[in-house]
Design a protein that fits this description.
mainly alpha, 7 helices, single chain
Length: 235
């Protein structure tokens, strides 16, 4: 994870996700009429953010699951290359690394919690004449494999969905930030309403309007505090 370029790992993950999808909807050693090509198309749209004519590909003479995997791989690689060109190679590498590390962190935390729960209940397997230690090892390994599958799927899906902001979106974001800053500045700028009991003419931003109170006199802002503990600290 110290490497700046993790695109090779990301590409391998994407390839495994594609292979798993094809295996799910076009199981090995099955005939074409048993394939769920519409289900595969929907899954590709959801996981890879691409709408591809999978059913048309599958209907071609002599096309099998390996050819479908190759075409999906090619389309996904072209899409991600286009994203890299839009963001810029260095920015894309940074996005990939950040996305991978964040997802690993979240998945690993969930995995540790699941293992803790498994440890707390696996002892009950002994009542069914099963060895708790072997049961724990078996299920922990299965959970780890499931975590890796989820990691690959989540990273692939998130990276497939990212895109640069359009000019209109950038302009809208700039306007929103400017409005937020203006509202914060307005909240930070005191008005007469903030000092209802203040000495007439008192302006917090203008010390000349504070008069000449002694250190132990009430503060002219009307807070009820001594001047030395209120605006006198700012003088």
């Amino acid at each position: 994870m110290k490497a700046a370029d993790l695109s090779g790992i990301i590409s391998d993950m994407r390839g495994e996700v594609i292979a798993d999808l094809v295996d799910e909807f076009m199981p090995p050693k099955t005939y074409a009429d048993q394939w769920d090509t519409e289900g595969l198309r929907a899954a590709v749209r959801e996981r890879l953010n691409m709408d591809l004519p999978v059913a048309d590909w599958a209907a071609e003479e002599g096309v099998g699951d390996e050819e479908i995997i190759e075409r999906l791989d090619r389309a996904a690689n072209e899409m991600m290359a286009a994203k890299a060109a839009q963001f810029g190679p260095e920015t894309m590498r940074m996005i990939e690394k950040q996305m991978l590390l964040q997802t690993i962190d979240a998945k690993w935390r969930d995995h540790l919690l699941t293992l803790e729960h498994l440890r707390s209940v696996v002892g009950f397997r002994s009542y069914a004449q099963r060895d708790p230690l072997n049961e724990y090892k078996t299920e922990a390994f299965q959970l780890f494999e499931a975590m890796l599958d989820g990691l690959r799927a989540d990273v692939t899906q998130k990276l497939a969905q990212i895109r640069p902001m359009t000019e209109d979106e950038q302009a809208m974001l700039t306007r929103d930030l400017a409005q937020q800053r203006a509202e914060m500045d307005a909240m930070a700028t005191p008005t007469a309403a903030d000092f209802p009991d203040a000495t007439p003419g008192f302006n917090e931003a203008d010390p000349a309007t504070w008069g000449n109170p002694g250190r132990n006199d009430p503060c002219p802002c009307g807070s009820g505090k001594k001047f030395k503990h209120c605006h006198g600290r700012l003088a």
